[in-house]
Design brief:
The chain is an alpha+beta fold and 151 residues long. It has 3 helices and 11 strands; from the N terminus they run E-E-E-E-E-E-E-E-H-E-H-E-H-E. The strands form 2 sheets. The protein has a 6-stranded antiparallel β-sheet, covered by helices on one side. It has a 5-stranded mixed β-sheet with strand order 8-7-11-9-10, sandwiched between helices. The protein is globular and about 35 Å long. It starts with a strand and ends with a strand.
């Protein structure tokens, strides 16, 4: 199936397209961001592969509009530690997206509370949703970071 949705504000309109298909009960999504305003955007996610720009990644990562931190050592929500967010805390983005893998899973309340106390506005969702949301926010020129777990 193919969905297109118009994204933007009064000053500038941009278009974001999401194509998805189900193959062997595995969701594969291709993201296309027209007129990207960032150096790094998601291009595809599925089957344990996350494409950033034209490069495939097979391990979790952190992405900012102007930087990419590869091989983030988190393999599941159970691995999360506050120190895994040090690079994000230093940059102080307006919003932080946490992609938790195939399904949305919430880390313990104490963990989330610590990140809020560190000044992070954390939104938790499955990894595919985090990729889509990141691209959408980047298209609007927002200061965003996404920490995504690849399943």
């Amino acid at each position: 199936m193919r969905h297109s949705l118009r994204v933007g504000d009064v000053r500038q309109a941009s278009y974001y397209t999401c194509m998805s298909s189900e193959i062997d009960q595995t969701l594969t999504m291709k993201f296309t961001l027209d007129n990207p305003s960032a150096d790094y955007v998601f291009g595809h996610y599925g089957d344990g592969v996350l494409k950033v720009n034209q490069t495939d990644h097979h391990s979790s990562l952190i992405i900012f509009p102007d930087a990419l931190i590869q091989d983030w050592p988190v393999k599941s929500i159970d691995d999360l530690q506050i120190s895994h967010f040090d690079d994000i805390v230093k940059r102080e983005p307006d919003i932080v997206l946490l992609g938790t893998g195939l399904q949305q899973r919430f880390p313990p309340v104490e963990f989330r509370r610590s990140l809020v106390q560190a000044g992070l506005n954390l939104e938790i969702m499955d990894t595919a949703a985090a990729c889509r949301t990141y691209n959408l926010l980047v298209s609007e020129g927002r200061d965003v970071a996404a920490a995504v777990i690849i399943y």
